[in-house]
Design brief:
This protein is of the alpha/beta class. It contains 15 helices and 8 strands. A hairpin with a 4-residue loop joins β4 and β5. The longest helix is centred in the N-terminal third of the chain and has 28 residues.
């Protein structure tokens, strides 16, 4: 159909130009209109390719990590084979998954591969059925099962309390690199993810500043470029100061300070309230020294903006508005899991602030051990990958 439209436009243009003697400016205007229409046709064609659904024959043979090259895995899953195996041990992914309800059986490897590939791309499940040799409905069930398994782990791992013992060291490292606030250990900000217009609660989801429907998260990013806290989702209309209060971050950070016996603070933008534990830029009629302070601190606060950019660059699926249908999809779980995977990627590959601030992130094993200590062994990590304590992702089939 699009090809027919294209041919009709070209024929119309040629016939019109041949039948009329037009001034040069009129010919130029007509040419621009035709080219714009052609460009729209090609855009519609690309969208059609992207969302075109079709049936394909599948054999249901499980895919394995070793069945893909490291180059393909790095490009399409963001991690190479040995790294994915390590993530499976940390996340306690079972060897075999039986989805409750339909009883379909999958392997843990194909579940991990599908989760990474889905978040790292924009293909629909019908396209992915060729890669994983499963039907679209089966892939949907597996994707949701993996989210249900990893999400509780991610919620525990993305808590500021996890880093309590490390905060003074990170504040000292930042101070030695010229930070104007000696006790500052990290930066806080909110981020928006576009969503489709919801059928319920449309007013609450609409963000008037960005003029879009969205869900909102509050993130604390430490000076080592790790997401220490990722709270949400909140409705897009909720302001940063309101989220600060609703997340109890003031009380939580205060408890950390009392436990440490040392002062640590966060730094945020002007939308946040100014407290003894949260600093923000000076506003109003400020002095030259205060203006210099604001300018100096803005250079450090860029870290939180960079991590948001990295998250959406690594996992474009969570930033695709067409996939963000609240109340119908587990969009909140996908966002939180993507934040945790971003931390894993930073541990393995570093971040832009490693060179900018000179503060290296922890290794993957150090991060896993930190999570294990602070979560009281709820999600146990071991080198051997023992799976006796893993939370149920689905009942394993009996032998």
């Amino acid at each position: 159909m699009l090809r027919k439209q294209f041919d009709e436009l070209v024929g119309l243009f040629i016939g019109f130009m041949a039948a009329h003697r037009l001034r040069a400016d009129v010919r130029t205007g007509v040419l621009r209109l035709v080219l714009a229409a052609i460009e729209q046709c090609w855009e519609d064609l690309e969208n059609a390719k992207r969302y075109w659904t079709y049936k394909s024959a599948v054999t249901n043979v499980p895919r394995t990590i070793d069945g893909f090259s490291d180059d393909w895995l790095r490009q399409h899953c963001r991690f190479v084979g040995p790294e994915i195996h390590e993530l499976m041990r940390i996340l306690r992914v079972p060897r075999t998954i039986r989805v409750q309800g339909t009883g379909r059986v999958f392997t843990g490897e194909e579940g991990m591969l599908l989760l990474l590939r889905r978040l790292a791309g924009l293909e629909n499940l019908h396209h992915l059925s060729h890669t994983f040799d499963r039907t679209a409905s089966a892939l949907s069930e597996l994707h949701n099962a993996m989210l249900d398994h990893i999400y509780p782990f991610a919620k525990r791992a993305l808590r500021l309390e996890l880093w309590a013992s490390e905060l003074p060291r990170l504040a000292d490292a930042l101070a030695t690199r010229g930070c104007r606030i000696p006790s500052c250990c990290g930066f806080i900000d909110g981020t928006l993810f576009k969503i489709r217009r919801p059928t319920e609660g449309e007013d609450a989801a609409y963000n008037g500043w960005k003029r879009m429907h969205a869900t909102k998260y509050q993130a604390v990013v430490l000076s080592n470029f790790m997401i220490a806290d990722f709270d949400g989702p909140y409705a897009g209309s909720v302001g940063d100061a309101n989220i600060w209060r609703r997340s109890n971050m003031q009380q939580r950070l205060g408890a950390i300070v009392r436990e440490l016996g040392e002062e640590v603070t966060l730094y945020g933008d002007g939308a946040y309230p100014s407290t003894d534990l949260l600093r923000r830029p000076f506003r109003g009629d400020i002095s030259a020294d205060e203006a210099t302070f604001n300018e100096d601190m803005s250079k450090y606060r860029q870290a939180v903006e960079w991590i948001f950019g990295k998250l959406e660059q690594l996992w474009p699926f969570v930033g695709d508005k067409t996939r963000k249908t609240v109340l119908l999809r587990q969009t909140g779980k996908e966002d939180v899991v993507a934040a945790l995977l971003t931390n894993f990627h930073t541990c393995l590959c570093g971040g832009v602030t490693t060179d900018y601030l000179g503060i290296a992130p922890p290794t993957l094993q150090e991060y896993a051990e930190l999570i294990q200590r602070q979560t009281d062994g709820v999600f146990h990590y071991s080198e051997e990958g023992d799976q006796n304590n893993s939370p149920p992702l689905g009942r394993e089939p009996s032998s």
